[in-house]
Amino acid sequence: MEEDQIPKELELSPATDTSLDENIHHVNNPVLDLPHIEKKYLGTATSYVKQKDGYIFTDGSAKVEIKVVSDEIIRVRLAPKGSFLEDFSYAISDLNQQSALFDIEEDENFYCVKTNMVHCKIQKKDFLISFEDHNSKIINADYTSMHWEENADFGGYYVYCTKHAFNQEVFFGAGDKATNLNLRGRRIQNWNSDTYSYAFNQDPLYKTIPFYIGVNDGDAYGIFFDNTFKTYFDFAAEHQERTSFWSEGGELQYYYIHGPHMMDVVKRYHSITGTHYMPPLWAIGYHQCRWSYYPENMVREVAKQFRQRNIPCDAIYLDIDYMDGYRCFTWNKHYFPNPKKMISDLASNGFKTVVMIDPGIKVDDSYWVFKEGQEKKYFCRRGDDYFMEGFVWPGRCQFPDFTNPAVREWWGGLYKGLVEDGVAGFWNDMNEPAVFGRGTFPDDVRHYYEGHRGSHRKAHNIYGMQMVRATYDGLKKLYQNKRPFTITRAAYSGTQRYSSVWTGDNIATWEHLKIGTLQLQRLSVSGLSFCGTDIGGFTGEPDGELYTRWMQFGVFSPFMRVHSAGDTRDREPWSFGEDWEKINKKFIELRYKLLPYIYSVFWEQHKYGLPILRPVAMLEQHIPKNLQREEEFAFGDKILVSPVLNPGQKNKIVYLPEGNWYYYFDNTGFEGGQEYTIETPLDEMPVFVKAGSVIPEYPVMQYTGEKKLEHLQLNVYYTAGEEDSYIYADHGDTFAYEQNIYSEKHFIVDGTQSLLTITQHVEGLHSERFDDFHIYLIGLPQEPVSVIQDGLEIKIQRDNENRLFVVVEKEFRKLIIQ
Ligand code: MIG
């Protein structure tokens, strides 16, 4: 859209526009169908007062706060009757570390709040807000002014914001939605729901991430609508030229996040909602789960099989059946007579044990958790003061109010026994919260909400997040600063600070494999990078081919776990016969080889807020066609993958972004910026490495830390240009990295001078235990004559597969290959 078209459209009078179809949500709500409920719009902006970090504008009765969070982030809040709600958010980790210089200008028609990067313009007439870059290019603009309607049902406001959707604009983000990457033309809602066997396009699902990224004319921006009530987003679905978002309560409060690159937007979104801590190394290995492995002999047998068959595995999960009558924090002593012994035997064989914990606490006076919770009044109550009760696995249950810090503290402590038994990780399920029959809690249930009390309407979408937060905080203390591992099904924005996530109860179909690739890419750009699907599909039966292709995608899923429902057949990597076992083994081994690379990608996520999976749209947002590609994505900065998503597929068209690439399995070189047809034999998948990359590789171990690392292998892929690579390492299980006890090796690979030079700079205080590097030189255009390490010539060697490598000192500065 041309810039000069905008002002005309901005003049549209909202009052004449009665067709706003956000009304559609009234259809199922008889109370709201009452015809007299009218939307109210902001009037003319007439004045403002300055605040410490922004301005409050008014039309004489309503107020709008524009808060400058940073040069690139502006927060907008609406107070329909002039008083803002308390400024509290569960999503935001810290706004105060940000800072910005800003100013305001005013003319006859506009106010303009300016930072170095963003101009937030408020058109006085109709109070329309727009965001422009410093060249006055409009990036995002109101279509109508912010509006609201008073709601007789619960005594609050439904709040609305309607923006222009530009002609070519596309939309990404929004969490776990099981739909195409580009959200244009879709309406979504957020209400965390237990959605067993969900379908493509089914909505809502388990998570609420009210954040999206818009890309128009090569420029990206983000909107984070920080509201925990049921929220809706309409991406040019109802009206081609409008994008709206609204909520059934709470405050209209959103952050405009400037780009211009999608990567910038995602980084900045992380800068306010936080990142995931470094996971323990074992948590990014291969995990084996099912509903459920029991009794003890079964668990031991599965573990034994892994080791006998030499298939790496770091963790085994115990689903709900390990508990005594599904009472959390207890053991079924019939199935598991001596859990401590079993867990320590597993541990000495390299297996971590992860167990499930649900929020529902069985109503049972002889059960200590229930009794304590009762005595302390920690369970949620109905509006009329009775306890909230619902049926879940244990039968009749009550539910802790995790929005109360005292309850969280108590809950965190409950893990003590299991931690002492040796359990290494915890899996929080059913925390949407899910209740059999009625789905979830009734609306009137009360929550403490950090002192800003409210009903379940307000707390529903953050219930799961606060549960896993309680879990994480408790474990952090109990493990005495060893890193916990947690995984949650329900989430709200910011949950990444406490947990990894999985996509819930998917199905063993090819369609669901594809849905999984979409969900994980989407979660990754929505802040929840540490994510995975149930590999193989939760319900239904995959055949060997589907299972194996899913395993291949699993290698490039940030979280790699096989899981399946209770009534399904065996799902171990060997369950489909020898041929499939061989391929599964090869790919699980690949995961273990790539671990130091994957760990470094997690570091980039943690430290810099970079998403782990990066859709091609994000790599090259300036190429319109890429905005529609959704089957291929980068895993970190250096590896591009395009999972095979169809049965019997012999080849696949893969687009390679600009630059040069190597096919991982045979090192064939490809020139990027175009599509190729790539063969897809069953034991390979399209995986490409960017030219110039340094990819560290571990020898295959049966579990992380099995053996001392003698050498660190570096695979260096020749480039005619220059490329940076970063490799991160640390203890693998403590928080010492927060005190800079880590090492970050920076390699510059340069093919412009000699044949190739590799320079190394190391930062951080951690010294690694390996002796030297084995550097493999891949794709050299000619045989090297000599290799010089810091002035001294070293030997060029060939391994038993005739691959070229050199042994180089750990501290080397410069390697010249000529
Ligand atoms: O009502 O714990 O998504 O992973 O195996 C089902 C049993 C409860 C749902 C989870 C699934 C888990 C299952 N749980």
From TrEMBL:
Bias-annotated ranges (Basic and acidic residues): 1-11
Catalytic activity, EC: 3.2.1.-
Stretches assigned to the Glycoside hydrolase family 31 TIM barrel domain: 277-600
Top-level enzyme category: hydrolase
Domain of life: Bacteria
Alphabetical keyword list: Glycosidase, Hydrolase
InterPro entries: DUF5110, Gal_mutarotase_sf_dom, GH, Glyco_hydro_31_AS, Glyco_hydro_31_C, Glyco_hydro_31_N_dom, Glyco_hydro_31_TIM, Glyco_hydro_b
Span list, region Disordered: 1-21
GO annotation (BP), single: carbohydrate metabolic process
Domain Glycosyl hydrolase family 31 C-terminal: 609-695
Any GO MF annotation of the entry: carbohydrate binding
Residue ranges crossing the lipid bilayer per the database entry: none
Domain Glycoside hydrolase family 31 N-terminal, chain residue ranges per copy: 64-234
Residue ranges occupied by any DUF5110 domain in the UniProt entry: 712-777
Family to which the UniProt record says this protein belongs: Belongs to the glycosyl hydrolase 31 family.
PANTHER family noted in UniProt: ALPHA-GLUCOSIDASE
Protein name: Glycosyl hydrolase, family 31
Organism per entry: Sphingobacterium spiritivorum ATCC 33861
